[in-house]
């Protein structure tokens, strides 16, 4: 089956030399996380949180998904209909929310914004906020918690972006990635440098590649559709809610394959590429 998929894309010859990498076999599964398999816990009064990836060793992980080095946590959170979180203030940390489904509001610093599918929020440190579900279905979102370095100057207000209205930045990144930018360093990120959505057209693949440095933190989460993650010498099925962490060893190649003949696949993506100068 794998050979047939590779042959259909004409990739056998291209990927053969790349497959000689450090992370192989069962090790590859340690770089995937899926909130469906996590134990729920309740925080901030009524927000139910499930881990996707956790802090750990990105080169020699001891548990599956325990690979984060720079981001504090990456979770999937739900808020029940008519529920609200307790007022919260982030100290030494910030959060990025990307709404998957449901409807609600977020209130911070005297501002209130509507929450619905594909809304992204950058909640800065030191600003009290609440989340509220205003619909009759759970409000579900992906949550990235990043540290803010000492001396960092956070935004004075929350920043809200509607991915539905953001123009496409490029359709040819790494051959075929259709990119919409959500947040970048200049928008007020403290540790991360890029938060995006990436879409792939039917029967396309991103360019298999490695990264030439080890201080990268790059995560791909399947939002829509089912794809194939090419990592080292293996192909892995990636389904909605499943995240892949790029192996930061300068040796292990990865790529995304949309094997579907008639549908797109879409990802939520965030990354730190290098340690960068903090905003003062």
Compact description:
The chain is mainly beta. The chain has helices at 2-8, 12-15; strands at 32-34, 41-43, 47-55, 66-68, 73-79, 93-101, 104-108, 111-115, 119-123, 129-133, 139-147, 159-162, 170-173, 177-184, 194-200, 204-205, 217-224, 227-231, 234-238, 242-245, 254-258, 265-272.
Descriptive notes:
- With 280 residues, the protein is mostly beta strands.
- It has a single domain, classed as Sandwich (Jelly Rolls), CATH 2.60.120.
- The chain has helices at residues 2-8, 12-15; strands spanning 32-34, 41-43, 47-55, 66-68, 73-79, 93-101, 104-108, 111-115, 119-123, 129-133, 139-147, 159-162, 170-173, 177-184, 194-200, 204-205, 217-224, 227-231, 234-238, 242-245, 254-258, 265-272.
- The strands form 4 sheets. Strands 2, 3, 4, 5, 6, 9, 11 and 12 form an 8-stranded mixed β-sheet that branches. Strands 1-20-17-22-15-14-13 form a 7-stranded antiparallel β-sheet, with no helix packed on it.
- The chain is globular.
Q: Quickly give the CATH architecture.
A: Sandwich
Structural class: mainly beta
Low-pLDDT sequence parts: 12-21
Rg value: 19 Å
Number of DSSP-assigned strands = 22
What is the count of DSSP helices, taking H or I runs of 4+ residues? 2
CATH topology-level fold name: Jelly Rolls
Overall shape: it is globular
Relevant CATH superfamily = Jelly Rolls
Largest beta-sheet characterization = 8 strands, mixed
> Which whole number gives the mean pLDDT?
92
């Amino acid at each position: 089956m794998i050979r047939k998929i590779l042959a259909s894309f004409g990739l056998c010859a291209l990927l053969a030399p790349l497959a000689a990498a450090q992370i192989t076999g069962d090790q590859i599964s340690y770089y995937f996380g899926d909130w469906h398999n996590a134990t729920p816990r309740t925080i901030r009064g009524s927000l139910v949180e499930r881990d996707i990836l956790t802090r750990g060793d990105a080169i020699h992980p001891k548990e599956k998904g325990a690979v984060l080095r720079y981001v504090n946590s990456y979770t999937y959170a739900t808020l029940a209909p008519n529920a609200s979180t307790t007022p919260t203030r982030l100290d030494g940390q910030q959060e990025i929310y990307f709404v998957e489904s449901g409807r609600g509001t977020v209130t911070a610093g005297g501002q209130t914004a509507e929450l619905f599918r594909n809304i992204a929020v950058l909640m800065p440190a030191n600003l009290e906020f609440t989340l509220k579900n205003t619909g009759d279905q759970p409000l579900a979102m992906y949550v990235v918690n990043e540290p803010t370095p000492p001396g960092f100057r956070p935004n004075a207000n929350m920043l809200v972006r509607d991915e539905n209205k953001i123009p496409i930045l490029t359709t040819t990144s790494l051959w075929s990635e259709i990119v919409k930018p959500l947040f970048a360093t200049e928008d007020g990120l403290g540790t991360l440098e890029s938060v995006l959505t990436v879409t792939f057209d039917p029967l396309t693949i991103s360019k298999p590649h490695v990264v030439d440095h080890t201080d990268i933190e790059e995560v791909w989460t399947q939002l829509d559709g089912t794809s194939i993650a090419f990592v080292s010498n293996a192909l892995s099925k990636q389904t909605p809610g499943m995240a892949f962490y790029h192996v930061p060893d300068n040796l292990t190649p990865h790529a995304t394959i949309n094997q579907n003949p008639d549908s797109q696949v879409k990802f939520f993506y965030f990354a730190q590429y290098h340690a960068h100068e903090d905003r003062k």
